[in-house]
Design goal:
11% of the residues lie in helices and 30% in strands. With 183 residues, it is mainly β. The relative contact order is 0.23. The structure holds a DNA duplex (13 and 13 nucleotides).
Length: 183
Amino acid sequence: MALARYLIGKMLVRDAPDGRAGGRIVETEAYVPGDASGHAYIGETARNRSLFLRRGHAYVYFIYGVHFCVNVSGETPGVGAGVLLRALEPVDGIELMRARRGMRRETDLARGPGRLAQAMAIDRSQDGVDLCSRGPLWLGSAPREEGRIKTSVRIGIRKEAHRPLRFYEAGSPYVSGPPALRA
DNA sequence: CGGCTGATGATCT
DNA sequence: GATCATCAGCCGG
């Protein structure tokens, strides 16, 4: 999906009661219409309805009883698809992110979808928000030019595991996954 | 470094 | 009752 590639380098900004945090998106995964690994595959339900909103809305879900993950809805109204935001390069509110994550290395603050959500204090209360206009969570322009963007298989899924729908900024230390999928 | 595992709960069948 | 787009911690090499 073109959106997944387009989002690399853009800012994700979060305004929460305890302050602002933001970072450059360095890793995404597309979950396209008809994709058996996508949460929209089973059709619209109470949980995944945000994936069926017009492109640019947040879909936030709770996984493994432990973590939240954030998607950007990617299609026209009624069509379920999204882009998982897998990693950020922290830019604003780095100390705030550290406090939320429990004092870790900067490269681990938002490296992976669960860590990203924790660093940005994202949970189901942001589900369905319009990311294209300023609010508790939104997308901003790229602070600088992105590096080379590469493609790979997606991480952590079982179905449709061969499809090259993961996008990342090559060589960034803020990208998740095994070394072979970060180079 | 790589590999394994327990944690923990919403969701859907 | 099974599944799950994960992570931290612990182990061995």
